[in-house]
Amino acid sequence: MLRIGLSGGIGSGKSTVAGILAKMGYPVFYSDQEAKRLYDENPVLQKQLVDLFGPAIYRDGQLNKAFLAQQLFSNAELKAQVTALVHPLVRKAFEVWAQQQTSDLIFNEAAILFETGAYKDFDATVLVMAPIETRIERVQKRDLISREAVLQRIANQWPDSKKMNLTTYIITNDGQPLLQQIEDVISKLKTA
Q1: By the 8 A CB rule, do 127 and 164 touch?
Q2: CATH 3.40.50.300, applies to 1-27+105-192
Q3: Which end of the chain is more exposed for a tag (fewer CB within 10 A), N or C?
């Protein structure tokens, strides 16, 4: 079984690629979804976040996502602290999930695969890239936020140029059909 890391900057379309892979029958672990589950269901993490941010981090037992985003995207030190709390829990959940899979290829979709160094734990990685203006438009439409807010989030991630040097395969999501690119990557993975 090959473990493949799938990543890309905000608005690049990594979730779209992950969805296509899942429809093709490949197991996909969604790190961001797991992190969201942990924020809402893990009492130890919840206490750590309240200790770090105060009670405003939760509203009616649910993570105050807007508050968290505001804090993380304006303070690199806080972002690093939260990543240090959440990342090991997500990695552990992936390992448990991976042991239950039987497919020859499994994928882990993760936004900060390269930033955390987790890319080193995979047999190969796939980076989804898209033009910056396309990414901005997608995120503005999806999250209903300003251009400035999107640019701030993009600035908090590594640039594609840095990730390109660390990845095995690149998929360009610029409006061209994705399926052929995905099939090409799968073919290469299976013959590598």
Answers
A1: yes
A2: yes
A3: C
